[in-house]
C-alpha cells in the first residue's frame, strides 16, 4: 500500500485569473490512520467555478489557507478503514480535496452507488454543485414551463448544460448562451437546445431581441456582468431572473460589476432571485434520484472533460475560466 499522498496546495492568492504558479504539487508521508477515520484513494476531483472564490482568503464560501490543500469534492474508493460502516473497496464521495489519498472521519463521507456508471458521475450529473444545483435551480426556483422562453448562460458548462436540458424536459423553449461556434453547435446538436447565442461573436442583445421578440420569461444566470445586463434588457412582463452564479466576476470579487439594467425588473413587474443548492436540503435526494434515472435511460447527457493526473490540477481553473471545458470539468487523480 502507498505511504505517500500527492496533494495540491495554494502558495499565492491569485489576483485576477488563478494560474498554475499559484499552486504547488507536493508529496507528503501518510500518518497512521486514527480511530473513526477512513483512507480513500481519490479517483476524480471536481473542478468548480466556485473554487476560484475560495482562494481569496475571505468570502461567502469556505476559504483555502496558504499552504493548505485545495478544497474540492471528490470520489474514490476506501483503501483502509477504522470507521464503522466503511470497508475496503467501498465507493465514496466527500470533500476529498485536490490530492491522491484523502484521510478523513467516516462521518464526513457518503457511500455512492457504483453500479450507475463511472464514479465521476457522482461529481457531474449527480453531484451537489453540478446536477443537483441545476435541478434545484430549475424545479425549486426558476420553474420554467410550456410557453416560456428560457435562457441559460454558461450553457455548455456543467451546471448550465443540465439546467437547459431539465428546462427543455419541463416544456420550455430553451436558448443557451456560450462562448464560440463549437459550443453553440454542441448545445443544439448534442444537448437538444432550441437555439444558441455565441456571446464571443454575436451581439447578445440583438440576438435576444431576434430570438425572443416577446421577451425572455425565465433567465438562469451563471455568468453575471454584461450578459446579465443584455438579458435584463430583454425580459418579458412578469419574468423571473435566477442568479445561480456569476463566473465573469469571480476573478475580481472586490470590484463586482452589478447589473446596470435592473430597472427593467420594475418596468416589467419581474423578479430576480438568487439561491444556493444547500438552501433546499429537502430537494437533494429527490434531485439525485431523478437525475440518476435520466442518466441511466439516456434522457439527459452530461459530457465530461477530464484532465489526466493530479499534476494537472494547477491548470484546471485557468482551463475553465478560459472557457475550454465542455460539460463537467474533472481532474483524474489516480
Ligand atoms: N448556486 C449554487 O448553489 C451553485 C452551485 C454550483 C455552481 N454554481 C454556479 O454555477 C455556475 C457554473 O459553474 P460550473 O462549476 O458548472 O462551471 P462551468 O459552467 O462548467 O464552467 C464555467 C464556464 O463559464 C464560462 N465563462 C468563464 N468565464 C466567463 C466570462 N467571463 N463570461 C462568460 N462566461 C464565462 C465558460 O464557458 P464559455 O466558453 O461559454 O465562456 C466556462 O466553461 C457558476 O456561476 C457557479 O458559481 C452555483
From TrEMBL:
Q: Name one GO molecular function term.
A: oxidoreductase activity, acting on the CH-CH group of donors, NAD or NADP as acceptor
Q: Name one Pfam family in it.
A: ADH_zinc_N
Hydrolase as a keyword of this entry, yes or no, is: no
Q: InterPro entries annotated for this entry?
A: ADH-like_C, ADH_N_2, ER, GroES-like_sf, MDR_fam, NAD(P)-bd_dom_sf
**What SMART domains does this protein's entry cite?**
PKS_ER (SM00829)
Using the record for this protein, list the coiled-coil segments as residue ranges, or answer none.
none
Membrane spanning stretches:
none
Keyword set, alphabetical order? Oxidoreductase
Q: Which residues form the Enoyl reductase (ER) domain?
A: 18-331
The name this protein goes by in its record: Putative oxidoreductase
Upper lineage is:
Bacteria, Bacillati, Actinomycetota, Acidimicrobiia, Acidimicrobiales
